[in-house]
């Protein structure tokens, strides 16, 4: 599997949360306030190779063929420092990452990115970690990345609120969620592929610190998760959609109430939401979810995906629409970066 000692390549897919992660209780360890639950996709993989290099100097990080700059580069180096520390190694790394999803557009490029980096870097530095430990590690890069370690549906446990940092870290990882037979599709409407106005990191911080709606949402999200697990367990896609949509709208309500407000939803988002409502009135179990950006992901039965995609295209002609399904977890690949 591994290319050679000191070198590895991994592939990971983004995931879309049906119960959102929004708000940290510990910024350094990336511990969330609430549990979250997602579906890993079969589109937009990230492929990352990590090769250890001799000699002193900074890590060399290439993102889609260009040297990583600024915040992106710093986050990757900080993550590699964590891996080096766990492995008791000091070599610098040469990292090459290829994302097939627009970076920073609220389409979870950080989830596939840090999941792939965790798997590749752990292997390159000789860390022998199981999926749970890799999920914990990926979490330190970007919270949502913890869930991309697993295919299909995954739940990320917030972990214990009390106890030591080590206890909290150990308890905060993702794992697969048992589901009955479901044949879901996620119709993704990229209404604007540009970078977001406020990073999710900053938006979460502001929401937790200033939004009077944050605590009530976090409390209701706990109930949503219980209902979501039950709906997945009985294969009730309509209930899954209903719960996902209300959880996402609630998350956006918390940030609209932050001071100053964070608003990721655009006119095109709302136009698509109207169309989703019309689809429901026409008897199609289509439900929307949005993340830290204006793009809309519509959950529906796979059998209805084409009809939903056509309707969304018609409503937002300037958007790019594609149909995704449940995808695989992060894994090492033979491909040479
Ligand atoms: O992992 P981050 O820091 O990119 O946060 C992602 C947060 C949301 O995408 C908005 C919700 C989620 O659970 O993925």
TrEMBL record:
<keyword id="KW-0444">Lipid biosynthesis</keyword>
<dbReference type="InterPro" id="IPR020568">
    <property type="entry name" value="Ribosomal_Su5_D2-typ_SF"/>
</dbReference>
<dbReference type="InterPro" id="IPR053859">
    <property type="entry name" value="MVD-like_N"/>
</dbReference>
<feature type="domain" description="Mvd1 C-terminal">
    <location>
        <begin position="187"/>
        <end position="319"/>
    </location>
</feature>
<dbReference type="GO" id="GO:0004163">
    <property type="term" value="F:diphosphomevalonate decarboxylase activity"/>
</dbReference>
<dbReference type="InterPro" id="IPR041431">
    <property type="entry name" value="Mvd1_C"/>
</dbReference>
<dbReference type="InterPro" id="IPR029765">
    <property type="entry name" value="Mev_diP_decarb"/>
</dbReference>
<keyword id="KW-0456">Lyase</keyword>
<dbReference type="InterPro" id="IPR036554">
    <property type="entry name" value="GHMP_kinase_C_sf"/>
</dbReference>
<dbReference type="InterPro" id="IPR005935">
    <property type="entry name" value="Mev_decarb"/>
</dbReference>
<dbReference type="Pfam" id="PF18376">
    <property type="entry name" value="MDD_C"/>
</dbReference>
<keyword id="KW-0067">ATP-binding</keyword>
<dbReference type="Pfam" id="PF22700">
    <property type="entry name" value="MVD-like_N"/>
</dbReference>
<comment type="similarity">
    <text>Belongs to the diphosphomevalonate decarboxylase family.</text>
</comment>
<feature type="region of interest" description="Disordered">
    <location>
        <begin position="319"/>
        <end position="337"/>
    </location>
</feature>
<dbReference type="InterPro" id="IPR014721">
    <property type="entry name" value="Ribsml_uS5_D2-typ_fold_subgr"/>
</dbReference>
<protein>
    <recommendedName>
        <fullName>diphosphomevalonate decarboxylase</fullName>
        <ecNumber>4.1.1.33</ecNumber>
    </recommendedName>
</protein>
<feature type="domain" description="Diphosphomevalonate decarboxylase-like N-terminal">
    <location>
        <begin position="12"/>
        <end position="165"/>
    </location>
</feature>
<keyword id="KW-0547">Nucleotide-binding</keyword>
<keyword id="KW-0443">Lipid metabolism</keyword>
């Amino acid at each position: 599997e591994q290319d050679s000692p000191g070198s590895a390549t991994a592939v990971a897919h983004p995931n879309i949360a049906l119960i959102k992660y929004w708000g940290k209780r510990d910024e350094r360890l990336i511990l969330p306030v609430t549990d979250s639950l997602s579906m890993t996709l079969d589109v937009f993989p990230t492929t990352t190779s990590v090769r250890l290099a001799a000699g002193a100097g900074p890590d060399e990080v290439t993102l889609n063929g260009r040297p990583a700059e600024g915040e992106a580069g710093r986050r990757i180096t900080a993550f590699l420092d964590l891996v080096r520390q766990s492995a008791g190694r000091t070599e610098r790394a040469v990292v090459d990452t290829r994302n097939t999803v627009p970076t920073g557009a609220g389409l979870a490029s950080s989830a596939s990115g840090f999941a792939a980096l965790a798997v590749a870097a752990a292997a390159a530095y000789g860390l022998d970690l199981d999926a749970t430990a890799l999920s914990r590690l990926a979490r330190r890069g970007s919270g949502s990345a913890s869930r991309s370690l697993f295919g299909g549906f995954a739940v990320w446990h917030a972990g214990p609120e009390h106890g030591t940092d080590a206890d909290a870290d150990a308890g905060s990882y993702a794992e697969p969620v048992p589901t009955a037979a479901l044949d879901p599709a996620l119709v993704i409407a990229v209404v604007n592929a540009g970078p977001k106005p406020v990073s999710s990191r900053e938006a979460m911080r502001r929401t937790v610190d200033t939004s009077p709606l944050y605590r009530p949402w976090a409390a209701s999200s706990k109930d949503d998760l219980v209902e979501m697990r039950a709906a997945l367990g009985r294969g009730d896609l309509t209930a899954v959609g209903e719960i996902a949509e209300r959880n996402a709208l609630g998350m956006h309500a918390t940030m609209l109430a932050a001071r100053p407000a964070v608003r990721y939803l655009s006119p095109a988002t709302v136009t698509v939401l109207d169309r989703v409502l019309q689809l429901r009135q026409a008897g199609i179990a289509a439900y929307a979810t949005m993340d830290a950006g204006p793009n809309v992901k519509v959950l529906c039965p796979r059998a209805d995906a084409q009809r939903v995609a056509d309707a969304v295209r018609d409503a937002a002609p300037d958007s790019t629409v594609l149909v995704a399904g449940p995808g695989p977890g992060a894994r090492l690949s033979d491909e040479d970066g």
